[in-house]
Amino acid sequence: MRKASVVLLTLSYFVLVNGRIARLLHGRPFVSEHVMPGIAMPAAQPGAAAWENALIFSLAFVGVVLALIPLRRGERWAGWTSAAVWAVLGGTRFATDPQCLQVLDVHRHGCHTFVIALVVAVAGLVCIAIKAY
User: Fold this and answer.
1) What is the C-alpha separation between 64 and 55, in angstroms, rounded?
2) Cβ of 120: how many Cβ atoms within 10 Å?
3) Contacts of 99 (CB under 8 A, 6+ apart)
4) Is there a contact between 123 and 6 (Cβ–Cβ < 8 Å)?
5) Which among 33-42, 102-111, 116-125 has the top mean pLDDT?
6) What Rg value do the Cα atoms of the chain yield, rounded?
7) CB within 8 Å of 6: residues ≥ 6 apart
């Protein structure tokens, strides 16, 4: 179970940063995730996307390090810390992105990639909890 939790948590962080890395490689690092052609989007504060990228990349780095070092060794505190990292990521995303609340409606565009990463992370955290008890 420990290997499964490490793999699932590492995969969830990869899914989380995958779209950001693709935008950085294509030269559009500060384009919003929900920009669609033909739809006018309100101008965001300058630098807001840079802070969002910095938050996601730094917390993803912390999460991967937690998954690969202390969780692999079976330290219980790392599971709680990983849950706290995902609570911060999920809380800020759901609080600031109104389209994330539409993710359950399959006919509307929301933050499906983020929710997939969140579900994979929860599966990894459940594996940690099963192993602990």
Assistant:
1) 14
2) 20
3) 34, 108, 109, 110, 111
4) no
5) 116-125
6) 16
7) 67, 68, 71, 72, 124
Inform me whether the pLDDT recorded for 15 exceeds 60. yes
pLDDT tens, 63-83?
Answer: 999 999 999 898 989 999 999
Query: Are 42 and 35 contacting, i.e. CB atoms less than 8 angstroms apart?
Result: no
Q: What distances in angstroms separate CA 81 from CA 42, 52, 97, one per listed residue?
A: 36, 21, 24
| Structure-token pair, residue 60 | 């993803």
Number of alpha carbons in the 13 Å side-chain half-sphere of residue 69: 7
List the structure tokens of 96.
């600031």
Please state, in angstroms and rounded to a whole number, the distance separating the CA atoms of residues 109 and 101.
Answer: 10
Instruction: Compute the distance between CA of residue 23 and CA of residue 44 in angstroms, rounded to an integer.
Output: 17
Please count the residues of the chain.
133
